[in-house]
Automatic annotation (TrEMBL):
InterPro entries: Flavin_OxRdtase_Frp (IPR016446), Nitroreductase (IPR029479), Nitroreductase-like (IPR000415). This is Oxygen-insensitive NADPH nitroreductase. The keyword Metal-binding does not apply. It comes from Mesobacillus boroniphilus JCM 21738. One of its GO terms (molecular function) is oxidoreductase activity.
Amino acid sequence: MSKTLYSATRLELEGVTLPENILNQTIELLTAHESVRGFLPKPLPNGMLEAITTAARSAPTSSNLQAYSIIIIQDEQRKGKLAALSGSQHFIREAPVFLVFCADIYRLKHVTASQGYKFAANTLEMFLLSAVDAALALQNSIVAAESLGLGSVPVGSIRNDPEAVADELGLPEGVFAVSGLAIGFEREGVRRGVKPRLPEQVTVHHETYSTTNLEENLAEYDQIMISRRTYDGRRVSLAGEPEKHGVEYGWREHTARRCTRPETIAASASLRENLRKVLEERGFSFQ
């Protein structure tokens, strides 16, 4: 991995050189992705939003069930409410468009009943299928938006208070908001450069899963994130436990702390801790 901390693309950051006949605009766009959390008060030109949603609807979908829905939010008051429900993230209010991607089995239940059958797909597989469908549509939207010169950032904190979000958006039983996506023209100065990822050897495996040199690769990544000062001002509290001394605060320490209890993932003890219960109340099943 390159020692460069701030680069325009992951190819530059990691010193990857691709053959000229392989490198194209799509690869450059994908490897230049950076989450943008600051937007100009500027509406999207005519046709842009339709281009993004059409790209989203072109994503792969399991068995053509299309078990997802996208809700477009442009009303300032509603954006404000959703921002408050999503950790008070101001960029949601700033963005001219906020999309909410939902796992949706309401429509499948309706079709099954209207055809005279009993819906029996109350399974964990159906929830995973619908959540993956929503995620694929989300990713297509990100790529489409960035290809048009827009900035974007997915918002997982839309799941902080799923019942309140469902009430605000009028979601029927069988529809669950998986992620939001803020889209708009970015404000100057909000980028920090493409964020380093774990070394390829850690997340990409050939033929079988490998843990070879895992510790060494994690240590290397830790030092990169420490050098970049990624977690300055973002340390996860140990909630009453004594602070460790002599331990560098990098990706490993930050990640380990976030995985010690549910609230460190969602920033509050009451958030996302009872998602299974909420999902079951909203018409999903985990058989």
